[in-house]
Design goal:
An 8-stranded mixed beta sheet has the order 1-2-4-3-5-6-7-8, with helices on both faces. It has a single domain, classed as Alpha/Beta hydrolase fold, catalytic domain (Rossmann fold, 3-Layer(aba) Sandwich), CATH 3.40.50.1820. The termini are far apart. It is of the alpha/beta class. Helix 1 packs across helix 4. The chain is globular and about 50 Å long. It is built from 7 helices and 8 strands; from the N terminus they run H-E-E-E-H-H-E-H-E-H-E-E-H-E-H. Helices cover about 30% and strands about 20% of the residues.
Length: about 240
């Protein structure tokens, strides 16, 4: 009965876009560094994690939840920060959406929120994650999803990084995460005028701290923009 009640609670939270996983004291000290699968699913739609060479179990470490664009996969989700993770000493978690893109893009939250929760819970159990330094990042559809769940779960994420988002659809507002948004001036997939140039003023009117950068480019994440976003994700002590 208790288990059924818990399942009901988890399902209700997922439909609201709410993540229940929270950092805790890790249960294992011996961990594998580098790129690896979480093995949550017996399919290609699993989650990948990258643990930097600098990780130490006794030191709380920053975490970035990374969300791929439409038609992408977990490895593609890692792309913006994978080559920067060791120098920045950040753990990267990249789940795959359970369909071609994230559930909210089909009209409602559900299976992807549940999967993100499972992935986060496993990472929190295995690794020493700093609760004051957790970010959610995404590109394209993943950026729209990052903004949406980042605002809905601002009591978990203190940073939201959105590269070329199309829109945002948070269910609720919790906390006050800092937000970084970038967009290419010549984006022909999600045109800047009807996307970020509308999103950013909405966030500013809602009193969010927003850093916004436009760049001469298309639907992409230039390395210098990725570096700038990561620089803004400063450790909070």
């Amino acid at each position: 009965m208790v288990q059924n009640k818990q399942l009901e609670t988890n399902e209700q939270a997922a439909m609201k876009g709410r993540l229940l996983a929270r950092p805790t004291q890790p249960t294992q000290k011996s961990v594998t560094l580098g790129l690896q699968s979480l093995e949550l699913e017996d399919s290609e739609r699993d989650a990948l994690i990258y643990v930097p060479k600098t990780y130490h179990p006794d030191k709380p470490t920053r975490l970035v939840l990374m969300l791929h664009g439409a038609g992408g996969d977990a490895y593609g989700g890692l792309a913006p920060f994978l080559h920067l993770a060791d120098a920045a000493n950040i753990i990267l978690l990249a789940p795959a959406s359970q369909n071609k893109t994230w559930d909210m893009l089909y009209g409602e939250y559900g299976s992807d929120v549940t999967f993100l929760d499972r992935a986060l819970m496993q990472v929190f159990n295995r690794y020493n994650i700093d609760p004051a330094n957790i970010a959610v990042e995404g590109f394209s559809d993943g950026a729209s999803y990052a903004l949406s769940i980042g605002i809905t779960n601002g009591d978990l994420f203190n940073h939201v990084i959105a590269f070329s988002p199309g829109f945002m659809a948070p269910k609720q507002q919790f906390g006050r995460p800092q937000i970084f948004i970038s967009h290419g001036l010549w984006d022909n997939v999600l045109p800047i005028d009807r996307c970020s140039r509308k999103i950013v003023p909405q966030l500013q009117r809602a009193n969010y701290d927003v850093v916004y950068q436009e760049f001469k480019g298309f639907h992409t994440v230039p390395t210098r923009i990725a570096r700038e976003a990561l620089t803004r994700f400063k450790p909070v002590f």
